[in-house]
Amino acid sequence: FFIMLLIIFLLELTVVILFFVYTDKIDKYAQRDLKKGLHLYGTDGNIGLTNAWSIIQTDFRCCGVSNYTDWFEVYNTTRVPDSCCLEFSENCGLHSPGTWWKAPCYETVKIWLQENLLAVGIFGLCTAMVQV
User: Fold this and answer.
1) Which domains does the chain have, with CATH numbers?
2) pLDDT in tens, 75-84
3) Half-sphere CA count of 57, side-chain side, radius 13 A
4) Global pTM value
């Protein structure tokens, strides 16, 4: 049993080290996959993804992965989801870009995670301690 726990702990440690070594590549892949995921926004069977994007854009006051133009590909027109609006109202995503959040969600969430890295690290250490 101890050997199995040790192997799991070493694998977790390896994943953390690899994460920090390949951060740039992970950033590129994450942004690419998130942009692909935007196309599932509002589609049947993807209520969780739709709600997640709406919550992130509303709470972090951001729009799209890189910027609000990411949504133009999704809708094939100049519009964004209503959760991108500075002041929420029905169909506000159809108005001009001056009424939308300009900050990119990927960078905004990444900065928030970096600012709260201590809490994330403590959570990780607590999880590792429970395993031991």
Assistant:
1) 41-131 (1.10.1450)
2) 999 999 999 9
3) 29
4) 0.77
